[in-house]
Amino acid sequence: MKLGVIGCGKMGSALVEGAIRSGAVPAAKVSGCDAYPEAAKTFATTTGATFAESISALNADTYLLCTKPNQAEAALGAIPAGEALVISVAAGLSTAWLEARVPAGVRVIRCMPNTPALVGKGAAAYCRGKAATAADAETAKLLLGSVGLAVELPESLMDAVTGLSGSGPAFVYVMIEAMADGGVRAGLPRAEAIKLAAQTVLGAAAMVLETGIHPGALKDQVTSPGGTTIAGIAELEKHGMRSAFIEAVTTAARRSAELGGS
């Protein structure tokens, strides 16, 4: 694979750093360009990749499109015609939209990563365009999986992915902040409360992923009769915490559909 990165901001850099670190692609086979040349030069210095002056100079067979959505059309039009794959992380752009704007012979895959990819803990979904192959899907999984979890889903579910894992980190940050506030209210120093809350969320998430046990069953393991945990859970239920999270995800998914015109 010769990987060309179009848009060398935080997400593009995170994905490439992960791919290089995991051995998915050597730095010598990666080049990047950006509308702001200094960003591309910084990207090249950070990752060990090559700096390219333009999209046509990337000399790639796989392109990682990491531009803002309003910059995507011009970027896609600058890709040379021929056998190539575009993996787009530009928010809200459907495979049909992408396919209508790439040159002849270029295949597309649409992805929805999230910001924890910046620390190697991302959660991403991807879907194939009409001409994309199983090998193309494996390429997307390889790149996205180098910075976290990557799953292939039908495009009809991408708005749901946006509502859950795309917007979800912000919901969890609010929860961590609130838990830390509770710790402070109970007497903990602020710095320690934030660390304990964040580590508690990290540990609980790892338990779900590593054990494969349903989160409800894991909750029951912590919840002894008449104890502190069930008292706290009863308070959460009284204030509608569960329904609030459900509504947050579904509302974000609905807004994603509105913005994307789907």
Automatic annotation (TrEMBL):
Keywords recorded for this protein, A-Z: Amino-acid biosynthesis, Cytoplasm, NADP, Oxidoreductase, Proline biosynthesis
Transmembrane segments: none
InterPro entries: 6-PGluconate_DH-like_C_sf, NAD(P)-bd_dom_sf, P5C_Rdtase_cat_N, P5CR-like_CS, P5CR_dimer, Pyrroline-COOH_reductase
Pyrroline-5-carboxylate reductase catalytic N-terminal domain location: 2-92
PROSITE patterns for the chain: P5CR
Pfam family, one: F420_oxidored
Catalytic activity line of the entry: L-proline + NAD(+) = (S)-1-pyrroline-5-carboxylate + NADH + 2 H(+); L-proline + NADP(+) = (S)-1-pyrroline-5-carboxylate + NADPH + 2 H(+)
Annotated family: Belongs to the pyrroline-5-carboxylate reductase family.
General function of this protein: Catalyzes the reduction of 1-pyrroline-5-carboxylate (PCA) to L-proline.
UniProt-recorded name of the protein: Pyrroline-5-carboxylate reductase
The species this protein was found in: Luteolibacter soli
Encoding gene (name): proC
